[in-house]
Amino acid sequence: MRKITQSAQRLHPQLTIVKVVAAIPCFNTEKYITDVVSRTSKYVDEVIVVDDGSSDKTTQLAEASGAFVVIHSVNKGYGETIKSCFASAKLNLADVLVTIDGDGQHCPDEVPRLLSPVIEEGVDLVIGSRSLDNWHEVPHYRKFGINIINYLWNFGSKVKVSDTQSGFRAYSKKAIESLNLTETGMSVSIEILEEIRKKKLVIKEVPVTIYYQNNNSRIGTKAIRHGILVGLSVLRIRIKNIFTQY
Q: DSSP class of residue 158?
């Protein structure tokens, strides 16, 4: 039976026809993927893992856990992996798509928290935000990069988001079908927000828990560099969209 939140079933019994698909972008996540797939599957109809050219046992463990796996023969980057997530959702006729990282950062038991606004309120994009309740848990070097990106995307806009880089999201069917993504790297998260904003679709954020598995100076330097590079991509995407008609 297709799964939706219990409250939605009580209020709108007809919503049992909603099909929920979870797509998990992965790269060398063998340590976490079994747990992520197993726990996520409790709240959705189908789990799809997109393995972006892993050299470990991510694919085998995901399949053993019951997921359908889409395999990139080489590592193509986060943007291409997200595109495969959307393509798989369309092929599987998903009414709602949930994306959740495969590296154990997100709590699968919070999936219903993201589904509820889409199913019950008609929201098009729900973002699991680290900034609403659990900002203190985010390492300082990550906050630096996130703040840069948030500021650049929110500047001058009536639609503001507290966590533009969260990969824990839920999308309505309208959002799934309307997005036309071109970015290949981490800037795809901003491209999605920009398209949703331009198309005047509804965005909502909910607080989520975050778990950082690695926290060292080398990773910190990489995260800061990532923040700056994605920040530059934000400027490029926003400037380009000023002259683009949807």
A: S
